[in-house]
Amino acid sequence: MAEERLRSRVSLTLKVVALLLLAALLPMLLVSQLQLRGSLETVQSAEEKSLLLEGQSLARQVDQLLEHKRQTVLMLAEYSLVQDFLAAPPGGRQSLAAAVQGHLQLLMRGNPEFANLYLLDPQGVFVAVTDPELLGERRQFREYFQRAAAGEMYVSNLLMGIRTPEPGVYFSAPVRGADGALLGVAAVELQGAAIEAILARATSGHQAFLVDQDGLVISHPEAAWRYRSLGQLDPARAAAIRASGYFPDGTLTPLGLAGLENLRGGTGQGGFFPYRGSDGEAWLAAATPLQRQTWTLLLAEPERLFRAPLDSLFQRSLGFLALAGLGLLLLAVAWGRALSRPLLAMTESAARLQRGDYAAALEAPALLALDGRRDELGTLARVLRHMGEEVYRREFHLDQQVRARTAELEEAHARVAGELCLAREMQQAILPQDFPQGPGWACHGAMIPAREMGGDFYDCIPLAGGRLGLVVADVSGKGVPAAFFMAVCRTLLEEAARELEAPGAVLARANELLCARNPMAFFVTVLYGVFDPARGSFTYASAGHHPPLLRRAPGWVNAGPTACDLALGVLEGADYQEFTLQLGPGDLLLLSTDGVDEACSPQGEQFGALRLQQWLAARDPGSDPGDCCRDLLQELGEYEAGEAADDVTLLCLSLTDPVPGSWQCWALPPRLESIGDLSRALENWLGARGAAAAGLAYPAKLSLDELLTNAITHGLPADGAAPFRLGVRLDPGGLALQLHIPWQRFDPFAAAQVPDLSLGVAARPVGGLGLHLVCSCMDRCEARVDALGTWIELYKGFNDGKDRP
User: Is the pTM of this model over 0.70?
Assistant: First the structure.
């Protein structure tokens, strides 16, 4: 009770606290969030403008530097002294060499950002240069010479020098004579440090860097970024750049900067690009395309720099909200307790009313104290007390009525239970309790209803000529109505079976009678068959019932064929197709209702036809039918582990095996190659059982080869068939073989003619010799044909005539 009171108080108090906090703090949080977002957008917009203006300023400075150096190299190419020098023959340049060299040195002193100045003749040979070591060397393969020699004013990328590991930009222009003929090339190398000095003017905390038309970072304050790509380079373009030799080894690898991977210089692409650095920090970059080169200048700033003031403001706002929330929390707790105490008192009284403790509920001091209040809580307390008194009066009266009615129902239930028990005993009594048997065969049945009475039944009907009619049926529905209909069906089937011989005719007669006497529209599925011990056959017909299961002596289990015929009682004039199974020693025939297949485990999985066939295959040949029924019922009970959902009915017919023994079985696909596999397996099996058994291998293999070759070659359907199966067993007298050919429907021995061996080969009729050979090799050859195919039984005794263990 104490724990329940605590839970109630805490629950109500928390609800009041949550409501007040939401009502007060939620608007404050929303306003603060909107203000913070607006401030962030304003600051970011201002910062973007600042970055853009600063980036444009740096880009203009780089453009001015490039344009100035471009004009310098053009002036050098148009200087008359340079033109006269390059126009003179190689032997006549000595007189002008000193003046030209002095002019180059003067330009170097006036432009300290230059690394070198060059004059090259039309063959690409340095004829004047500020670095004496280069004089006389050839550079006809350099792009700055080739482009200028072709008549272009050329400005290179920011490249790493080949001789020195310093970056630089090459400017070149053609030097032409008065007639426009190419006299040579003037070239200038601008130090990369001059460009880096401009980029270093960026505001503290900012990073300015250049990206070329391939997305390569050609200048950056951090050396690790230089000559690496923003995104993935095209493999062919990357190979061409590496082949130029202007970039160090190990460069051109992608930086992996999310947000900048698609940025390229020379496209005119500008604007703002948020991205994340290699360490995951968020940055904002402003991109400005250069006018004088296919480069883009990016000025980047960490977002934390302009967000820091807003973060501080947000933390102060959170502190204010926390203090306000604490005050509201204390106030809400006080209000919640003041509201929860009276409600808790009424809750306890209501709980006592629910348990039937009326005196404690209606006279509780806390409830009586609330009775005098003039507010809504007092009104609620008075209503609760009045309701409790009314409930007490009604419950007392109802309890008296329930006691009287319960006594009447118990008496009626006992009477009905006794009648149902008697009815169940009577139903079981009309089913066969003593089961017929004869020489070499026996049968047994059982029916377990799911309720007091069931709708399933079985019957064993003695017929003329020593034959036996076997019936298994399942009436629609369960309980008493199904049981009454079951009795009618059983009587009609028995009358029809004694008057008619054919199972199909028996079902047709019973169907006509049921359709005429079925006002409640019940129906029943029936499997009725006639067992003829003299012929070893079981001929049956099915009225909507699932087929019988036949276990052959070697352990094979087959479901007999069946037609989709109507159940009895559904429609007049129905016909029923008949099928015949040939039975042999050791065979076991099982008829059952769907209560077996549909038995469910506690997990909802059905027992199923496959599990039933596996259980039947594990039985011994010629098993006692009574043991089979009892064992299967026990197996189903353990599988269901509870109350059965449907009636279960079994009827088992067993043909005893005169020579018990263990069968070895093989199943092979219907191909000629399988005959050789079977022969080898049979020879190995017999060889492992002694010399006497091994001596039977040859006639057995010869007979099987002849029978299977004929069946596969001349009888196999074009669309194939099920595997053929062979069972073998050694008994004290010799070797027994049982061969099942499912696609064959005739007795080969009945059609065989004994060949006239006195005739010559040419005069002898074709056919018959192979089967004659089989009959000569084996001591006994028999065949049975039924709806499942041809069953051939062969037997070969030991050659010495002695019994073998």
Answer: no
Q: Which residue has the tokens 């109505």?
A: 481
Closest CA to 198 of 190, 98, 658: 190
SS3 554: coil
Check if the beta carbon of residue 473 is closer than 8 Å to that of residue 545.
yes
Q: Among positive and negative, which fits the CA dihedral 495, 497, 500, 504?
A: positive
Q: Is the C-alpha dihedral spanning 45, 50, 51, 55 positive or negative?
A: positive
Count Cα atoms within 13 angstroms, Cβ side, for 437: 17
Q: How far apart are CA 476 and CA 488, in angstroms?
A: 13
Distance CA 637, CA 649 (A): 13
Tokens 């696609």 sit on residue: 743
Residues 96, 118: contact at Cβ < 8 Å?
no
CA distance 453 to 481: 9
Longest alpha-carbon distance in the chain = 147
Q: Are the C-beta atoms of 509 and 499 separated by less than 8 Å?
A: yes
The Cα–Cα gap between 785 and 751 comes to 13
Q: How are the residues of the chain apportioned to helix, strand and coil, as percentages rounded to the nearest 5?
A: 45, 20, 30
b/e string for 578-611 if b means 16 or more Cβ within 10 A?
bbbbbbbbbbbbbbbbbbbbebbeeeeeebebeb
Nearest to 664 by CA among 803, 553, 799: 553
Segment holding 559, helix H or strand E: strand 557-559
Tell me the backbone φ, ψ of residue 227, rounded to 5 degrees.
60, 30
Q: For residue 680, what are its two tokens? A: 């080898």
Picking from 13-22, 598-607, 624-633, which range would have the lowest pLDDT averaged per residue? 13-22
pLDDT tens sequence across 380-429: 777 777 777 677 777 777 878 888 887 778 777 666 555 556 555 555 65
Say if CB 163 and CB 66 are below 8 A apart. Answer: no
Nearest CA to 525 among 479, 493, 494, 557? 493
Write out the two tokens for 609: 């036809």
Question: What is the C-alpha to C-alpha distance for residues 722 and 283, in angstroms, rounded to an integer?
Answer: 74
pLDDT digits (tens, 9 = 90+) for 513-560: 988 877 777 899 999 999 999 998 999 999 999 899 999 888 888 888
* C-alpha to C-alpha distances, 520 to 477, 509, 570, 783, nearest whole angstrom: 11, 20, 11, 49
**8 A C-beta contact, residue 345 and residue 367:** yes
Cα separations (Å) of 212 from 187, 289, 364, 376, 669?
22, 10, 89, 80, 73
